[in-house]
Specification:
35% of the residues lie in helices and 22% in strands. The protein has helices spanning 44-53, 255-273, 285-304, 316-342, 353-365, 369-376, 408-418, 426-486; strands at residues 30-34, 37-41, 70-85, 90-102, 118-121, 131-133, 152-155, 159-171, 183-192, 200-204, 222-236, 239-252.
Length: 487
């Protein structure tokens, strides 16, 4: 009978089989059949797998002594911040999980197996630590369903390393008090679901207490402020369970909010303050003040959808907009009050003496000294004086009694001289009386007109001084508010 030989390959061995007349190839071994002789070829990794999987039970903890805990260490590397849903307070991250443990059943002598130091086994063929994220929000999945089905790397000393990408979706309570200059803290608590500390000793992989962020992809809205890791142990009814806490602190990039919300609000606040520089005669001051208030309300509605609803604290930006709206509403009310003062002279209402004294002091302080003194003080050179009576109103157009030289006696004397100096008769007396009444009526009318004009000018000066005071006060408040809220 013919004898056949298979090619010689390193690390492959020859086996004898009888009554095999066909050639067969499989994923585990390779056979070459020529007559009654069959050569079966197997590499060293296959032999290691056959060796360590012989009698292995993946449901049992991988320790030779059942009283010993399984040492497990974990590490989470940040890859990308997918989303931080602020209204729902949910964070979504792409992460790289690294889990290391010791399997005492997976050991071999490398000298007996062709110096093979490590192999790769399928995830479903080995024991895995039941490490879960406590704040996992994938409610439609099991605690470990979010793991990718990657393989496990096994060393000849029994060290197991499992590297798997995980899309982490977790709850994250947000503190929005300093929004948009806030720093949010999101803790991720990892622990064993079934094994207490006596069965599984969970620790973190990095000894420096810092998480892995070397491969983090930059985000347009958030930046990593810090990423730390710590260990703690909590006591429950079923025992003491170790926990590894990865704490991620995210700092918000506030440029978007400063440019699109804060700067327009500051400009609207300045526009609201400049309302007091608009002349009341124009009739547009109140309309402008109301328009500015409505514009600020619209901006407040815009930021309402960007922050989570919370009754614990009021965000800093909302406080800023609230302050701006309050100032705008107050300025609108002051504009209405100023309009009332401005037109109060039409009804010939006198300015209180105390108010005149206050305006003399305040007007000098706000740079309106000339305007105030020209209305509320006496100028002896021009014989224009303020009367002590509160109802009297000086004016530059008001003449004194000495200036009224056109009297009835002068008129009659001129008439007598024109008729040749004859003695006055009854008609001349009547003319004298008539002219006297006419002159007195003219003088009285001129006095009333001068007083009315003086009252109007006084009230206009009152509104002018108060406008200047309100303008300066608004500018001070805007400066202080911006300094407090933006630093």
């Amino acid at each position: 009978m013919k004898r056949g030989f298979c090619p010689s390959f390193p690390h492959w061995e020859l086996h004898l089989k009888i009554n095999i007349v066909r050639r067969r190839t499989s994923s585990i071994d390779k056979e070459c059949t020529f007559g009654f002789f069959v050569a079966k070829f197997e590499n060293w990794e296959m032999k290691v797998i056959r060796h360590i999987m012989n009698g292995y039970e993946k449901s049992a903890r991988p320790v030779l002594n059942s009283a010993d805990p399984v040492p497990v260490s974990v590490d989470i590397g940040l890859r990308e911040l997918v989303q931080l849903d602020q209204p729902k307070q949910i964070i979504n991250l792409n992460t790289w999980w690294r889990i290391f443990w010791k399997d005492e059943f997976f050991t071999w002598n490398i000298s007996d197996f062709g110096n093979v130091t490590s192999i790769v086994l399928g995830l479903d063929s080995v024991w895995l630590p039941d490490i879960v994220l406590w704040s996992n929000l994938n409610t439609d999945k099991s605690p470990r369903a979010s793991y990718s089905k990657t393989d496990v790397v096994v060393s000849n000393e029994g060290s197991m390393a499992w590297y798997t990408p995980v899309q982490l979706e977790s709850s994250c309570a947000l503190d929005i008090e300093d929004f948009p200059f806030d720093i949010q803290t999101c803790p991720f608590i990892l622990s064993s679901w079934n094994y207490a500390e006596a069965k599984l000793n969970l620790t973190y992989y990095r000894s420096n207490g810092l998480g892995d962020q070397a491969h983090f992809k930059p985000n347009s809205e958030w930046e990593i402020h810090s990423y730390t890791v710590s260990r703690r142990a909590n006591v429950y009814i079923s025992g003491t369970y170790p926990e590894v806490v990865f704490t991620l602190q995210l700092k918000r990039k506030s440029l978007y909010y400063l440019y699109n919300l804060v700067m327009p609000c500051i400009l609207l606040m300045l526009l609201s303050a400049l309302v007091f520089s608009l002349p009341l005669e124009s009739g547009e001051r109140i309309v402008l003040a109301i328009t500015v208030t409505l514009a600020m309300t619209v901006f407040l509605l815009v930021i309402k959808d960007a922050i989570p609803p919370s009754s614990d604290s009021v965000p800093l930006l909302v406080q800023f907009f609230g302050m701006a709206i309050v100032m705008s509403v107050v300025n609108t009310g002051l504009s209405i009050f100023m309009s009332n003062l401005f037109y109060r002279g039409e009804y010939e209402m006198p300015v209180p003496v105390w108010l005149e004294k206050v305006l003399l002091i305040v007007g000098t302080s706000v740079g309106l000294k000339k305007n105030v003194e020209s209305v509320f003080t006496c100028n002896k050179n021009t014989m224009i004086c303020v009367q002590e009576d509160a109802k009297s109103t000086p004016t530059s157009n008001l003449r004194t009694q000495k200036e009224f030289t056109f009297t009835a006696d002068n008129v009659v004397s001129n008439i007598v001289n024109d008729v040749g100096g004859k003695t006055e008769g009854t008609i001349v007396k009547q003319i004298r009386q008539l002219l006297s009444r006419i002159v007195l009526a003219i003088e009285e009318k001129q006095m009333k007109q001068a007083q009315a004009e003086g009252l109007k000018k006084k009230w206009k000066t009152v509104s002018l001084v108060l406008d200047r005071v309100c303008l300066i006060f608004n500018l001070i408040v805007i400066t202080v508010t911006c300094s407090v809220y933006l630093t």
